[in-house]
Specification:
Elements: E1 2-7, H1 13-39, H2 61-78, H3 87-99, H4 103-112, H5 122-137, E2 143-154, H6 161-171, E3 174-178, H7 183-197, E4 215-225
Parallel strand pairs: 1-4, 2-3
Antiparallel strand pairs: 2-4
Helix pairs in contact: 3-4
Bound molecules: 2-acetamido-2-deoxy-beta-D-glucopyranose (2 copies).
Length: 236
């Protein structure tokens, strides 16, 4: 099993990411309160608005931020130079994998990400990731952010339909079957599919795997922010 992630952005990525998570998310909540406003004055009780549940991602973002900081600290001690990683990609990939694992393995994976399953049961963690990924996927005029998961499963695997359904529903993960005995052809197949699914934004993805690979989980992320002060084309 292997997992790879594609990151196409500068070294300030981690901090940008945290910033995006903190700044962007509240903006996207607004349609919900707008909806609440509309029902004011109707037969709804006045307390309706204040009882509105917080979005499900609120249950996962603090843990993801802590995970990012822990990981960053560890990487900074071991790696020289710039560090490029995407905490949401990594944590959501692991949480997605845990869906297909036995209950105790699922617990271990989620706890290693820092979740306290007494406080936040596994189902809430998955719903939280679903809400976070959905929110990050909403179009924004300021930045373009695309994040996705692909699962490539060897033909000899018989994954449970329930796992495939949950992976798709909660993580938007698309599953494809592949024949890993034919390594080169499968690499090409994965490359073509990723290019097609990302409308050409992610290219040259030719993962390497060994003959006994049975599953590849691939995560891509594409991030493009508009500059606040765009460079003057004639001066650059
Ligand atoms: C998890 O949360 C429960 C309830 O808040 C708490 O009693 C427990 O100590 C926490 N576990 C860990 C490992 O932090
Ligand atoms: C996978 O590819 C190998 C080598 O070409 C072939 O022998 C095998 O039958 C294929 N397996 C499946 C399940 O298609």
């Amino acid at each position: 099993m292997c997992s790879s992630s594609f990151q196409m952005m500068g070294p300030v990525w981690l901090w940008l990411w945290l910033l995006v998570a903190e700044v962007l998310l509240p903006v996207h909540c607004q349609p919900f309160s707008a909806h609440g406003d509309k029902s004011l004055g109707a037969s709804q009780p006045a307390s309706h608005q204040s009882l509105e549940p917080a979005p499900a991602y609120h249950k996962v973002t603090p843990t993801i931020t802590n995970f990012a900081l822990r990981l960053y600290k560890q990487l900074a001690e071991e790696v020289a130079g710039n560090i490029l990683f995407s905490p949401v990609s990594l944590s959501s990939s692991l949480a997605l994998l845990s869906l297909g694992a036995h209950a105790d393995t699922q617990t271990q994976i989620l706890e290693s990400l820092g979740f306290n399953l007494t406080e936040t049961p596994a189902a809430d963690v998955h719903r939280g990731f679903q809400s976070l990924l959905h929110t990050l996927d909403l179009p924004s005029p300021k930045l373009e952010l695309k994040l996705g998961h692909f699962l490539f499963l060897d033909r000899q695997l018989k994954p449970q339909q329930r796992f495939l359904d949950s992976a798709k529903e909660l993580y938007g993960a698309l599953a494809f079957s592949a024949n890993f005995t034919e390594a080169a052809a499968t690499g090409q197949q994965i490359n073509d599919l990723v290019r097609k699914q990302t409308y050409g934004q992610v290219v040259g993805c030719l993962p390497e795997f060994s003959h006994d690979t049975l599953m590849v989980l691939l995560n891509y992320i594409f991030f493009k922010a508009k500059c606040k002060h765009p460079f003057d084309r004639y001066q650059t």
